[in-house]
From TrEMBL:
PANTHER family tied to this protein: ENOYL-COA HYDRATASE, IP11341P-RELATED
InterPro entries: ClpP/crotonase-like_dom_sf, Enoyl-CoA_hydra/iso
Lineage: Bacteria, Bacillati, Actinomycetota, Actinomycetes, Kitasatosporales
Protein name per Swiss-Prot or TrEMBL: Enoyl-CoA hydratase/isomerase family protein
Superkingdom as given in the UniProt entry: Bacteria
Amino acid sequence: MSEGLRITADKETGVAVVTLDRPEKLNAIDLGTADELARIWRELRFEDSVRAVVLTGAGERAFCTGLDRDAEVPQPTSPFMVDDPLIRIGPKANDLWKPVIAAVCGMTCGGAFYLLGESEFIVADTTATFFDPHTTYGMVSAYESVYLAHRMPYGEAARMALMGTAERISARRAHEIGLVSELTAPGGALEAAVSCAAVIASYPPEGVQGTVRALWAAKEAARAQAFAQAPSLIKLGNLPTERQAELFAGRRTKGFRVR
């Protein structure tokens, strides 16, 4: 098990809890954690005692802040190829069709949407905020924007992707627009998500998993077409890594608007 990830399972309820466990890094995903996430999703395909999963982040400050900026990811020079270490971190990308519920508190941004985009629904407490920093740092929000556009109204997804770090969507607003399905008091998201998961896990698993697959099929074709455009858009639109780092180093930690 990676130091950045832990999993617990309750065989009586059939619910497993997968926790991103790098609170000192705001649960940013390094390469080891990315590999471990993919491995866990694939192993859960064979664990019949687990019938529903809750995904959460350790600590109170963040659910996940995407890819760890210290991760070194060499890229091919071709404009048609991108090595994205997060593209395989979600359950659907690893052929897991057991329901996954995300329990969110604190900051959620960028590459976190690879995980939220492949969860069935999101439970958040009132401390949660959501934003996408890519454009601020001279990067294309490609895969993240596709996931967002499938989880919320187009105008809201576009605003989040384009406004970058200047705005954060509050948990209340996320609930109003349908990104979040249930809002809880601070610290209550995990308990509420586990409660939902236990109900779902009590049902016959074949019907549940078939329903998950049917729901995903409703948007799968459009997502695959959009993803096919992502590598060239990223290669054409991203600033050089050094310039991105300069913009990130000069970032403002205050002054953003929460709406």
